[in-house]
Amino acid sequence: MKLALSNHALYMPAISSAYARYGYGQRFKNSYDFTEKQLNFLDPNEGMFNYPYALYSAGQAAATDGAAQRTTFITKKERYKGLTTIIGDSGGFQIQQGTIKFEGNKTCERILRWLEGTADYSMTLDFPTGGIGKGRMEAHRNRLTRAGHDIAGMTARNGQSLDFNAALKQSILNLDYFVTNRKAGATKFLNVLQGRNEDESKAWYEEVKGFDLEGWAFAGLHQCTFSMVLNRLLDMWDDGYLQKAEWIHFLGISTFPAAYLFTAILRCIRQVNPAISISFDTSNAFTTAVNGLFYAWARQDKRVSKAEQYKLSEVAPEDEDVSLNDLCAHLSLSEDVPKQQLTAWNNVFALPANTHIGSKVRMSDLLSPRIQGGSRRMTSDGITFLMNHNADFLLRCFRRLNSNIDNSTDHEFMPPSAVMVKACIEQVFQAAFIDGNMVMARNIIGQTQATLDRLAIERFQ
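Above: the chain's sequence. Below: its structure in token form.
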């Protein structure tokens, strides 16, 4: 049995390593009317809700040799074959941050084997360009130069900075290791594209494209700088790679407008590659819960397109028996949204959080008792419950968005800026794929760049 091909871009919740160990060594501190294994939403039989897609990162789960050996509910042998799809991130970000020590082929070997035992599709081990401005590539540049790699020569050829070329060179060395040492059929690889601007993106693509892997991943500013994305997709089309790619992933973004546009890109590419999938991820559901943040409501309309979070310790009522869902309903009704829009999930514009675990857990399950009038802290179980709640709610939001895409012709559920970007994307692919006029397609990108990149400007301001 195999998962059906989705007609929408797929959200991949990036599961934390601690969450993935529940039911596999990690236990609740107290007893509840549900078990640890019911947190496993990949399991169609036990999970409180079921969703067959996720991202899992070697940056957390394989930071050391010991960590890489741990069994979780995401490990391949623990999953339902054919009924789930896991994308494995390679941990390049954590190496850049210094939380994983990079030891050349030794690190590549550990991460490669972990990916093969965990993921259906895997990122190659790239060195991100995002850390260049913070000086995080200098030590690696010096190391590579001492090892005899001509970083200065690369800079002379492509005109990019020394640190950019150090990141590129190490990524190519890692690619060589993965391709040479991979086990046939164990996992499929996505060639990661980095770059902080069009020139860097193009230079990176030209150097790595010859590895001819099973798909592509867009990292860094690519996530919502759509002029760069479209230029690279047209390059892939010109070079014959897009026609046969199985999967494209966008790293580190899960806004509603971006998801809307990824689905637009998917449907355009399906005209020339009917079997391709597109996905995107963030770890928001899990990382924000560590700080006691939970989603209470969301809006999808032309004025507001977001899911709103609150800090539980700041908004929790004194009544210990109030459920998380009841609190979310109260917070939703306190917002400037017409009450009739908050009555059902079928409404296009406003979505109050109403999750499976949210109906089961109370304030007393989530927060420690107040001591002498002081602030309340999240319990360790409570943090985990918020992770599950947040993931469940975000998935509901994306299901609602996908329903809106399919059933609303006026696109009132999206801000006008996103609707304009969608129109530009469709014009580019119409020119390239249908009209066969690549010059016109490139010209459209140039003429509409300000529109195409507007979401990136809004996101990073």
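The chain has 20 helices and eleven strands.
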